[in-house]
Inverse folding.
């Protein structure tokens, strides 16, 4: 019997899991390796921080998806991969062999790397990833904010830092919020019209934007690249969607940033027994932004190709859309939408984002089965 190992319960794997009870894979043993019994949907995290959602609203429980699917869940993380030997090493030291491996384990905030760039981050900062840990720790910030007006410094001028700084400004009344944007433009991956909307939205919410890098964190302060010290109660690390360090030395061909290089079939360009989708992968045939939208879109194609390969059929190529609808929440139930160079903003965009996000969670939130 062939053994398919699904690594990570990311967006694309949720789709495959949701199909397995109705369309089982005959004569295939399937193991899901994922560290938590649920997936917290990142798209709703800024809304959680802003106080619009309870954490439970953002949760997709795995147990109902796994029921009757024939999948065994190992609640573990991978810490190593030997692609030649077709073997994963898990965080309890055990190993797991496979015939076919599908990786959808997302990006990481590599704490060792971030600590090198920003000494003191490990000890003093709150990291956005793993999202499960962030979700567990955020209530402590809320409790602290009950006792005094906090100084919050969000480190990272990309979409995540922008959304979180506006969410924090909305929920922690009286807090001073600073966004440390580094030396790149704010929302650098967005067109100029969106960048201008972002700048104005931050200004309207009295968020101080500093174009400097954080180069150290100590108790009560963040050190800036220009030598200044910024008083800070809560340094929030919103930089980095990095490749997991355990991919180094796996033998897989990786891109220059260490993500798994995959072809038009979402298949490793070096090891055909390995498929990968979402942020952990990097297409060699087209440039894609790392985003939940692309991870979601990859799900059906990945599921179809895994089924095909296990049935001895050639996989089909998958072409991701060139443009996607991007929605940046602005903390106050509003949002900024963009599609290529087109952009719009307002409460109606926030309403649309809420509908899409809740719709995603609802799609995979099955009633518990016996
Ligand atoms: C605050 C925030 C808001 C965001 N908002 C948006 C948005 O509105 N729209 C958008 O498109 N993108 C958004 N993103 C980006 C989005 O989160 C990522 O692009 C998306 O999560 C990538 O999906 P994925 O399926 O590749 O991985 P993930 O969603 O990260 O899922 C990976 C899964 O693998 C598991 N895993 C991790 N490591 C291991 C391991 N070693 N072994 C086994 N399992 C492992 C994780 O626990 C998780 O279950 C946001 C990100 C953040 C942090």
């Amino acid at each position: 019997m062939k053994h398919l190992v699904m690594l990570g319960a990311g967006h694309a794997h949720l789709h495959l899991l949701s199909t397995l009870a109705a369309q089982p894979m005959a004569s295939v043993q399937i193991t899901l390796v994922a560290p938590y019994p649920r997936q917290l949907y990142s798209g709703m995290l800024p809304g959680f921080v802003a106080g619009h959602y309870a954490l439970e609203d953002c949760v997709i429980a795995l147990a109902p998806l796994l029921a009757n699917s024939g999948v065994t869940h190992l609640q573990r993380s991978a810490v190593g991969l030997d692609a030649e030997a077709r073997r994963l090493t898990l965080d309890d030291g055990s190993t797991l062999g496979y015939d076919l491996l599908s990786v959808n384990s997302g990006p990481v905030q590599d704490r060792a790397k971030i600590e090198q760039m920003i000494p003191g981050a490990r000890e003093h900062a709150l990291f956005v990833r793993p999202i499960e840990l962030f979700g567990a720790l955020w209530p402590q910030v809320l409790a602290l904010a009950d006792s005094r007006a906090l100084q919050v410094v969000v480190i990272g001028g990309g979409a995540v830092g922008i959304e979180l700084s506006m969410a924090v400004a909305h929920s922690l009344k009286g807090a001073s919020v600073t966004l440390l944007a580094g030396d790149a433009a704010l929302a650098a991956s967005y067109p100029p019209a969106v960048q201008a909307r972002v700048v104005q939205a931050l200004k309207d919410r009295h968020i101080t934007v500093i174009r400097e890098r954080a180069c150290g964190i100590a108790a009560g302060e963040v050190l800036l690249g220009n030598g200044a010290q910024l008083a800070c109660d809560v340094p929030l690390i919103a930089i980095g969607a990095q490749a997991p360090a355990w991919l180094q030395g796996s033998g897989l061909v990786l891109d220059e940033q260490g993500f798994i290089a995959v072809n038009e079939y979402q298949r490793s360009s070096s090891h055909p027994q390995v498929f990968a989708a979402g942020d952990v992968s990097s297409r060699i045939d087209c440039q894609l932004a790392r985003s939940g939208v692309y991870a979601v879109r990859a799900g059906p194609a990945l599921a179809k190709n895994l089924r095909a390969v296990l049935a001895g059929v050639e996989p089909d190529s998958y072409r991701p859309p060139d443009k996607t609808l991007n929605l940046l929440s602005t903390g106050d139930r509003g949002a900024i939408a963009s599609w290529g160079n087109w952009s719009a903003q307002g409460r109606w965009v926030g309403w649309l984002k809420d509908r899409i996000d809740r719709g995603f969670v609802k799609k995979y939130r099955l009633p518990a089965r016996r």
About this structure: The chain has two domains: 2-35+75-108+242-322, 111-239+326-359. The first strand starts at residue 2 and ends at 7. The pocket of flavin-adenine dinucleotide is lined by residues 7-12, 33-36, 39, 42-43, 45-46, 77-78, 104-106, 128, 130, 160, 163-164, 244, 278-280, 290-293, 295, 327 (CB under 6 Å).
